[in-house]
Amino acid sequence: MPLETTTTAPDAAVPAPDAAPARLGRRRDHSRDADILDAAIEVLAEVGYDGMTMEMVAGRAKAGKATLYRRWPSKGELVVDAVACMKSKGLDADHLPDTGTLRGDLVAMIKPRAVEDADRKLRVMGGLMSVISRSPELAEAISSAIVEPRAEVNRRLFQRAIDRGEIAADCDVATISMVAPSMTAYRLLVTQRPVDRDYLIAIIDGVVLPAVGLKPPAGDPGAQAAPLGPLADD
Amino acid sequence: MPLETTTTAPDAAVPAPDAAPARLGRRRDHSRDADILDAAIEVLAEVGYDGMTMEMVAGRAKAGKATLYRRWPSKGELVVDAVACMKSKGLDADHLPDTGTLRGDLVAMIKPRAVEDADRKLRVMGGLMSVISRSPELAEAISSAIVEPRAEVNRRLFQRAIDRGEIAADCDVATISMVAPSMTAYRLLVTQRPVDRDYLIAIIDGVVLPAVGLKPPAGDPGAQAAPLGPLADD
DNA sequence: TATATACGGAACTTGCCAGTTTCGGATACC
DNA sequence: GGTATCCGAAACTGGCAAGTTCCGTATATA
């Protein structure tokens, strides 16, 4: 049951020393990799690392178990790869909303697609929680695919607010950037309650904005400042 | 699967009123229950639910595996019982510090013994994270032994600050009470960094107090207002 | 002291799952 | 078309852990 933590040469076999081999026969269909990794993410989100079996992943991806082992040497490395592949999806710290106010930016991040993506990432994280402490590779994958992208987005939004003079320059950006990630994770994984738009607005208006010295709008909280309807997406 | 979450001797000394069978022979030594449950908590904190084996618990408690199964019908119910037994230890919402200021109260909660206790509870929670969503009994045990006591303590401290007019009456106590629990859990379990006095002070002064409209003390943050030396305990 | 029960330890049974092998069929290169 | 390789399916192996049974011993009641 221990995680295989070998750092592997992934698929690159022994290099033919002299002649380019110019392989023969059917080629490995690497487009299936994504299907398998997606299936693994699904299963991880539902039953966690120890509940996941290679048969489940193979079945979900309509693949054979042997195909999985042809591509990854062990369950542990498949999972690390699957988590790492989540990095490219979702948040993009280079294309953030810029509404002119911190609250506007934070609220603009709340889109159905983004909320759903964050929800899945949190569930995957929860399913891997008890393994994190014993697998540095997995911890690193989770950090760089889930934790850091989200923290980085927040740091940029707060830094912009500092740069435009909206909030104090000496506020603890590093700590405040973790407020929403921490609270949503706790809410979803520990108390098992939904992380929806209302809850995110409550964090923004009840904790984050007051913490940086801003007053949330007075009226019905969160009702306004929703520039897009519920069906609007990216 | 019947739920047996009794934390004390179920077959108490109450004698059957009429036909008391007056059992014969050696009696079950219920003082061992606590040893076994403590061993289970230790193992859970170290390797999580799926990593924990009944042999490990028995070995740690210097008991036989059969003794465990004489007292609990399954691993799952032993774990639920072990978590439920954590409820009585640590926080006591009826004997909270009362320093006259919210910050004083929050800082007074930071004692080596309390930090250590919270740390262990968080690790246990992390080890059970992926099981919570599929075991309502376990979710309930965690909630009432770990989540609620901590939230209740915070709610009381904030409510007292409201009552004495120190902070606004309309602040979102329910949400703010979850800030520190959420952030410490994330810090310890996800980012794997220590939850020590400095980090707790950073949360108090960098997030919680500003969020309720209070200014933390200006100077070296957290250095003062530590009325007791590092060796002082409860 | 006699008896009924609990105890720790160890052997045992059972089932599951990681990982391997085998096989008939599909597919891309030559 | 020939062939080497990949594919999915299924059978198989081996180890590990949940749960059970048995045994020699300890201990509380009568």
From TrEMBL, chains A, B:
Q: Could you tell me which InterPro entries the record lists for this protein?
A: DNA-bd_HTH_TetR-type_CS, Homeodomain-like_sf, HTH-type_TetR-like_transc_reg, HTH_TetR, Tet_transcr_reg_TetR-rel_C_sf, TetR_C
Keywords, ordered alphabetically: DNA-binding, Transcription, Transcription regulation
* SUPFAM superfamilies membership: Homeodomain-like, Tetracyclin repressor-like, C-terminal domain
Task: Specify where the region named Disordered lies, as residue ranges.
Answer: 1-29
Q: Which PROSITE patterns match?
A: HTH_TETR_1, HTH_TETR_2
Compositional bias annotation for Low complexity:
1-22
Q: Pfam families from the entry?
A: TetR_C_11, TetR_N
Residues of the DNA-binding region: 53-72
Look up keyword 4Fe-4S and say if it applies: no
**In what residue span(s) does the HTH tetR-type domain sit?**
30-90
GO MF terms, alphabetically ordered? DNA-binding transcription factor activity; transcription cis-regulatory region binding
State the protein's name: TetR/AcrR family transcriptional regulator
Which taxonomic lineage does the organism of this UniProt entry have?
A: Bacteria, Bacillati, Actinomycetota, Actinomycetes, Micrococcales
